[in-house]
Amino acid sequence: MLDSIITSKTRLRLLVKFFINADNHSHLRGLAEEFGESTNAIRKELNNLSEAGYLKKESEKNRISYRANTLHPLFGSLQDIIRKYIGLDTVVEEVLDRMGNVETVLLTGDYADGKDTGIIEIRITGEELNTQYLAVLSQRIEEMINRKVNFTIGNANMKSAIVLYSQKGS
Predict the structure, then answer these.
(1) In contact, 26 and 65? CB cutoff 8 Å
(2) Are strands 119-127 and 101-108 parallel, antiparallel or unpaired?
(3) pLDDT band at 169 (very low <50, low <70, confident <90, very high)
(4) Distance of CA 28 to CAs 22, 57, 115, 154, Å?
(5) CA 69, CA 37: separation in Å to the nearest integer?
(6) What does residue 72 show for φ and ψ, rounded to 5 degrees?
(7) What is the rounded end-to-end Cα distance, in angstroms, of the chain?
(8) How far out from the chain centre does Cα 76 lie?
(9) Percent of all residues in the chain with a pLDDT value above 90, rounded to a whole number
């Protein structure tokens, strides 16, 4: 869907990297290695996104580091679009529908780090959760969003996690 509007695969991967989690940051060579692309292609897109104000450049020792510009007026909208592109809105909606008393839904793993690997890791916390529903839910969501989804139930204390839903209002 989004890839028909944003035809540059590199630009789309950069948007996922930086807008799925505003804490993500990286530098040119790290991105080239992560994406398996030339530094020139990535530099071009980083420059375009920086000039448009979507990314911020920061000097980090002798490197330039990039991160999402959270002060940009379209930051929230872009983040919502990227999360919908990945299918996270569908995941949250389906989990809340029949899982029981859900306290939090967390995105963990590669996607929390901005890596579009095709495998979404979701951790759910709560009381009296319908764990039998997870097997059916996982398959149903995979068909809806064309990405593999792995669910785990348990502790919310994670190193790299993004809160997608919290009973407390997040």
Answers:
(1) yes
(2) antiparallel
(3) low
(4) 17, 11, 15, 36
(5) 24
(6) -65, 140
(7) 27
(8) 13
(9) 62
Residue 94 has, within 13 A of its CA and on its CB side, a CA count of 21
Question: 3-state SS of the chain?
Answer: CHHHCCCCHHHHHHHHHHHCCCCCEEEHHHHHHHHCCCHHHHHHHHHHHHHCCCEEEEEECCEEEEEECCCCCCHHHHHHHHHHHHCHHHHHHHHHHHCCEEEEEEEEHHHHHCCCCCEEEEEEEEECCCCCHHHHHHHHHHHHHCCEEEEEECCCCCCCCEEEEECCCC
Per-residue pLDDT reduced to its tens digit, 25-82: 999 999 999 999 999 999 999 999 999 999 999 997 889 999 999 999 999 999 999 9
| 58 bridge partner residues | 65
Predicted confidence (pLDDT) at residue 127 exceeds the cutoff of 60: yes
Tokens representing 107 are: 């995105």
- Greater model confidence, 4 or 91: 91
Tokens at 5, concatenated: 């509007």
pLDDT of 11: 94
CA distance 7 to 1: 11
Length of the chain counted residue by residue? 170
Select from 95, 102, 166 the least CA-distant residue to 136: 95
